[in-house]
Automatic annotation (TrEMBL):
One of its GO terms (molecular function) is G protein-coupled receptor activity. PANTHER family: NEUROPEPTIDE F RECEPTOR, NEUROPEPTIDE Y RECEPTOR. It is a multi-pass membrane protein. It comes from the Eukaryota. This is Putative neuropeptide Y receptor 11. It is found in: Membrane.
Amino acid sequence: MRTARNMFIVNLAVSDALVCCVGTPLTLMELLTKHWPLPDWPSLCKACGAIQAISIFVSTISITAIALDRYQLIVYPTRPSLQTMGALVTMLCIWVTAFCLASPLYIFRSLKTHNIGLKDMDSLSFCIEDWPIAKGRAIYSLFSLILQYLLPVLVVVVAHVQIHRRLRGRRRTTKKTPAILIAIAVTYVISWLPLNVFNLVADFSTEPILEEKSMTITYAICHMFGMSSAVSNPLLYGWLNDNFRKEFEEILCCCKKRQITKDSRIKNRKMDTELTALAQIEHTVTANTKTSQCSQIF
């Protein structure tokens, strides 16, 4: 199981865990509060935006790396495959690239505090993006659209089409294989398309495209589609993977066997304790009988 592709899947799992644990709660917090409810630390405001972007970039680049690794392994089986050290170096490059792509959100994100002088609230803070140029946010959205969506979609679709063509004439290929390839490509396209289109339209529009409430609901729905990839990825890359499923079943079977063995050991110990107790009782009764017999003789 310690192959390059499986290491990329582990990398994908880590990034999806970050999306679930950091990205989704922070987005929900921003939608519900409209202001910055966390401590007034500028570094925390910067880090929250950057971590969300990093987790998404790592997830999408890992999916692209898995598609390329499958492509190389199936279309060019005679070429040397990626080894463990090469996979580790690739994973390091993925994280470094994600940090670089998300760095503008750390650099140009700032915490603005306004003194309002209310009885229960002295000040109100907002974590906003303060770009140094006009349309800076729109340029970054276009940049993200190309690198986080269009380029990965192109690579994943082309790689899976070539893999399908290569496997089409093989006897061992089941009907499930092309279905999984199609599901991976379609799921990725559907998951990230709404959010990228929404960000692009909203950032390039000179006037608000919707009312505030409708805008919030639309953004929440688009964001939900994007975050749904963290739910579909474990199914597509984990459960539908025969090797992973066999390993999971073996682990579960081993756990069941261990539990059965543990229960049998406890049962055997209990029986031994009961037998020992019975033997002691028997010995006591025998001794008392002998004593009574001796007392009768004397």
